[in-house]
Structure formats: C-alpha cells, structure tokens
Amino acid sequence: MTALIAANWKMNASLAGNEALLSALAAGIASKPACDVALCIPAPYLAQFVALVSQLPALAGVALGAQDVSSQPSGAFTGEVSAAMLKDFGCRYAIVGHSERRQYHGETDALVAAKAQQALAQGITPIVCVGETLAERDAGRTTEVVKRQLAAVIQANGHCISEIVVAYEPVWAIGTGKTASPQDAQAVHAVLRAQLAAASANASRVKIIYGGSMNAANAAMLLAQPDIDGGLVGGASLKAIDFLSIVSAACA
Ligand code: PEP
C-alpha cells in the first residue's frame, strides 16, 4: 500500500513562516513523490497554500488537508468551517477527532463520526484519530478505547468506511517526545485492521497511520511494521529538513 505522510501543523503558522516552510519543502521534495504527502494546515491559510503551490511546481504532488471540519453542512454555526468550504480550496483530507479536540473541545465519538460523515459527503478523506490516554493504557484499556472510537465512525459511515484513513495516536505520545515502540504500535494497528476488515470487504485499502512524536530518527522503524501505513506528524512537520527525511523514509 502506498504510504501516507500527513503533516499536522496545529496552530502554528503565519504568512511569512508558511512561505519559508513551503519553499524549503519545495526545494527538497520530488515533484511526484513515491508516497502520498499531505499538509494539514490552519484553515485561514488555505488560500495562501493554493497560491504558493501554483508558484512552486515541486509541491504539485502534495495534497492539502484541514485539521478539523464541521459536523454540520452549513448554516448558523458561528466559527465552524464546513466540508464544502474545504472542498472549495481543494482539500483532499481533513483530520477529525484529534485528541486535542477531544480533550480541549469535548468532542465525543458521535461528533467525530458526524464530522467524518460530512467530509466523506464532499469527497474529502477524513483522517480519523483514535488513541488512548496514559491512564487508559496503564489500566490495560488501550484496545477497548481505540475500538470504541473507531466503532462510532464505522457505525455512522457504513459502506463508505473504506474511504477513510485511520490515525492511531496514543495521547501520551503526542508532542511529548515519547513514541510507542514499533511493536506496541503494530499491535494496536493490527487490532484496528481486524476491526475494519470485519466491517467492510474493502477495508484492506484503508491506510492506518501512526502519530505521536514521529521524527526523522524513529520513522523508518515505525514505518517498517506491516500494519503501519504512514504517519501523522506534528512537531517534526514544522521543520522542512525533519519532515523531508520522514517523507524519504516513507517513500523508500
Ligand atoms: C499530532 O499532533 O497529530 C502529533 C502526532 O504530534 P507530534 O508529532 O508532535 O507528537
């Protein structure tokens, strides 16, 4: 399966900074990378990305993504950004259910499932994040938690489920410098793979990517696992040199 490396810039961007980062990425990336590469950027900069990519042909193969999407199609939902709006800017991906949104914005499994549904309705691939907290891990509840989170999305999206990407992101590994060992991550990915296979005959094409302090040093070992199909990269995606080396590891 073609690997997917998706950057999650989180709330880190500026007009000048984006220009510098995209120029540096353009200088180091193959115009047709041998794997899928996406940048999930803050919504206010979608138009800037589109304009810059037209001036930086080396980025033509890099897909645009958002970090969230509304669970509603349109209307009186102040501050929300709909899937149709993301589509207008050519977004190919939208992260849904990132642990920071579950934790700081109270997003429930049902809301995350509705967000995935909205993205799919616009032909946008939701990158559905699942993952356990440290307390849940210590209590031996990892499998139960990630299966519950994914089950909600499967239930709401039925036959479209083969169109999603799943990101396993142990919460305790995000932005902490702690990474799940390749073996531990693989074990959870295998659980998720089996859950998807039970839900859809086409589930074998669903990419299951890993996120949580993936960096230039650990990417190759994680990506070598049979059920790890790529990475969702936060901190390391903000430095071109680090992100490019993760892309190289995935495209190898
Ligand atoms: C993320 O935010 O999805 C993430 C994985 O962050 P980091 O790589 O910084 O741990």
Describe this structure in words.
With 252 residues, the chain is an alpha/beta fold. The protein has one domain (4-251): TIM Barrel. Helix content is 42%, strand content 16%. It has ten helices and eight strands. It has an eight-stranded parallel barrel, surrounded by five helices. α1 (15-28) links the parallel β1 (4-8) and β2 (36-40). 46% of the residues are buried. The mean pLDDT is 96. Bound molecules: phosphoenolpyruvate (PEP). Phosphoenolpyruvate is lined by residues 8, 10, 169, 174-175, 211-214, 232-236.
Jot down its keywords.
10 helices, alpha/beta, binds phosphoenolpyruvate, TIM Barrel, 8 strands, 252 residues, globular, single chain
Summarize this entry quickly.
It is built from ten helices and eight strands. By secondary structure, it is of the alpha/beta class. It has a single domain (4-251), classed as TIM Barrel (Alpha-Beta Barrel).
Draw up the topology in text.
Blueprint: E1 4-8, H1 15-28, E2 36-40, H2 46-55, E3 62-66, H3 83-88, E4 91-96, H4 99-104, H5 109-121, E5 125-130, H6 134-138, H7 142-157, E6 165-168, H8 182-199, E7 207-211, H9 219-223, E8 230-233, H10 240-251
Parallel strand pairs: 1-2, 1-8, 2-3, 3-4, 4-5, 5-6, 6-7, 7-8
Examine the coordinates and then state which fold CATH places here, giving the name of the CATH topology. Answer: TIM Barrel
Strand content range: 15-25%
Q: How would you describe the shape?
A: globular
How would you state the average pLDDT, rounded? Answer: 96
Proportion in helices: 40-55%
Bound molecules: phosphoenolpyruvate
What is the strand tally? Answer: 8
